[in-house]
């Protein structure tokens, strides 16, 4: 008998055990509001040039478990993470470091959530760039909602809290092409070529996996 996954239950990478309940209770209960502070908790390595961070700080982009990431945030600044951080007190990481804590915080609130690894179509026109996002289950709409917490509050998209079909392709979608109807003809020709490239923002060999 196949094992049924409970996406509301934390796994090894989304378990927040060891993080103070007082810290976690500072987060909201609405799914989008839960994820909103995350874009001010992580900073991409390419955005750190003006900060003069020590070389050791860049090891933070190897942090995998969400609980360890939150503990690192608190070591940099003991203020509740729900308030966000100034750039120098954010964890250095990539898109994965936005998606996994978002998933962990949603699960902490009892909301079914999962991380998706694939390709975003909204960073550079005509290109599918390796990227990680978060999905949560919307009971009212009976559907998975795709949310990109890295760009919440930014102007990359008008609706990063509810990505439209074709704006993000999971690994399986990129290979099978179910969303090709959403793409221009010249984009369709390049889709499979793009899906074979390893972009610097995606750890090699992890495409298509959902963090547990």
From TrEMBL:
It comes from Amycolatopsis speibonae. SUPFAM superfamilies: Cysteine proteinases. Residues 92-148 form the Transglutaminase-like domain. This is Transglutaminase-like domain-containing protein. Gene3D superfamilies: 3.10.620.30. Residues 186-212 are annotated as: Disordered. Residues 190-200 have a biased composition (Basic residues).
């Amino acid at each position: 008998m196949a094992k049924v996954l409970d996406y509301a239950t934390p796994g090894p990478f989304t378990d927040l055990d060891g993080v103070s309940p007082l810290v976690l209770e500072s987060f909201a209960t609405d799914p989008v509001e839960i994820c909103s502070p995350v874009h001010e908790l992580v900073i991409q390595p390419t955005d750190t040039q003006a900060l003069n961070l020590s070389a050791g700080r860049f090891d933070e982009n190897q942090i995998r478990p969400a609980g360890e990431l939150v503990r690192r945030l608190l070591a940099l600044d003991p203020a509740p993470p729900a308030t966000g951080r100034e750039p120098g007190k954010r964890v250095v990481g990539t898109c994965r470091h936005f998606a996994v804590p978002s998933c962990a915080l949603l699960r902490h609130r009892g909301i079914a959530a999962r991380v998706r690894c694939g390709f975003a179509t909204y960073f550079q026109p005509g290109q599918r760039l390796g990227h990680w996002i978060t999905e949560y289950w919307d009971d009212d709409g009976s559907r998975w909602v795709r949310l990109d917490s890295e760009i919440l509050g930014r102007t990359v998209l008008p609706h990063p809290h509810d990505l439209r079909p074709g704006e993000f392709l999971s690994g399986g979608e990129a290979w099978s092409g179910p969303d090709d109807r959403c793409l221009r003809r010249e984009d369709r020709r390049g889709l499979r070529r793009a899906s074979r490239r390893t972009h610097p923002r995606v750890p090699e060999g992890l495409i298509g996996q959902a963090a547990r």
